[in-house]
Amino acid sequence: MKETVYKNLFTPLKVNGLRLKNRITMAPLYLGYAGPGGNVSPLILHYYKEMAQSGAAMIMVENAGITPVGMGSPRTLRCDHDRYTKGLETLAEAIRKEKALAGLQINHAGRFAYVPEPVAPSSVPAFGKTPRALTKKEITTLQKQFAKAALRVKQAGFDLVELHGGTGYLLAQFVSPRTNRRTDAYGGSLENRIRFPLEVLKRVKDAVGDFPVGYRFLADEWLPDGLKPSESVVLAQHLEKEGIAYISAMGGTYESFFLPEIVERGKKPGYMVSLAALVKKAVKLPVISAGRISTPSRAEKILKEQKADLIGLARMLWVDPQWPQKARKGDDRAIVKCSPKCDACLQLVMQGKPAFCPKWPKDRRAVYKDLFH
Ligand SMILES: Cc1cc2nc3c(=O)[nH]c(=O)nc-3n(C[C@H](O)[C@H](O)[C@H](O)COP(=O)(O)O)c2cc1C
Q: Which domain does 356 fall in, by range?
């Protein structure tokens, strides 16, 4: 192996029995590329093959729905029935063929679901819609659906599964004092609010056995009445006790992402590193940090200062899939950077359109456009 200036970035790491060949992981990035109805499409296969060819150690595929009423969009990948397993198999294979570890994130969007009647821990309105509060029986059903979906991920040949506890989706909605107003065993005290994700994890682990389960983790909701790190780290410690493989820390939800102050924060390089560092202080588990880690020198510094164990690149890798190769050569300046002024990808997917990056060369854009149906 050729020498590199970024020694920490290219040091392998064992995570729950998996060997990551370096510290670069792809953080989940939904871009509206699945087929209508959430099937694995030629475009999504092409996208993840390209990401896996980048040289990143682990590719975490974007969120896939565990139940039809929990989908984030009509093009959200699905993992809620055995009929999707075959397609997911081709996706896992496409990634693993390129010598990257393949993970799939599973999710229920709760009050942010793209359905006429969303469900959530409590009836707290979101964007003009008031979700219906889940019954105790429905809570148990959902936990079983998470477990079945996780088993499908394993059966489809992925190396690991990730529970989506970020972005203010269902798992996070239970933890947040803002969106969980229940008065039963799932609401009120922090102990009660973290019950749902912990029970989901238990059922998932019972279903998949010896198979790594990671957690996308909402460390801070970035809202005055929202979840704060003082509470979220307690969940991190419980997740560790219950055998989670790693924690991938993030901040913000759809209700905070577009606030002017948060928009400004999101333009800064490494804007979520402090959250990862907070979590890392509370647990011994590997912690992933994402958020505009645009250069390998920044990534190296984060690792060296022990603010995180792994780097998560989402848009950063999508804009320039040669990021890891350029990093190995120490060629930071050659990396095509995602512009902090541009939020085209987010805007497009919010409008239900596929995202193509304005920074891409014409030929790459043409391939993606041709494959979109
Ligand atoms: C368009 C878009 C889609 C995303 N989709 C997901 C997703 O499916 N699951 C998830 O956990 N995070 C998702 N994220 C968050 C990213 O994983 C990541 O935390 C964030 O983009 C910051 O990293 P970056 O600056 O490298 O993009 C998404 C972000 C964007 C902009």
A: 13-371
Q: What is the 3-state secondary structure (H, E, C) of 2-22?
A: CCCCCCCCCCCEEECCEEECC
- Most informative mutation of 29, 66, 161 for ligand 1 (most atoms within 8 A of CB): 29
Q: What is the pLDDT of residues 22-73, one digit of tens each?
A: 999 999 999 999 998 899 999 999 999 999 999 999 999 999 999 999 999 9
Query: How many domains in the chain?
Result: 1
Determine, yes or no, domain membership for 2.
no
Residue 345 forms part of a structural domain? yes
146 C-alpha to ligand 1 centroid (Å): 21
- pTM as predicted: 0.98
Catalytic residue among 169, 186, 246, 368: 169
- Separation between Cα atoms, residue 340 and residue 188, nearest integer Å: 38
Q: Are 330 and 321 in contact (CB under 8 A)?
A: no
Question: What is the structure's pLDDT at 2?
Answer: 61
Domain CATH number, residue 218? 3.20.20.70
Residue of 259, 77, 250, 106 lying closest to 166 (CA atoms):
250
Residue 237 lies in a domain: yes
Q: Is position 302 within any domain?
A: yes
Hey, is 32 helix, strand or coil? Answer: coil
pLDDT digits over 324-369, tens only? Answer: 999 999 999 999 999 999 999 999 999 999 999 999 999 999 999 9
168 Cβ closer than 6 Å to some ligand 1 atom: no
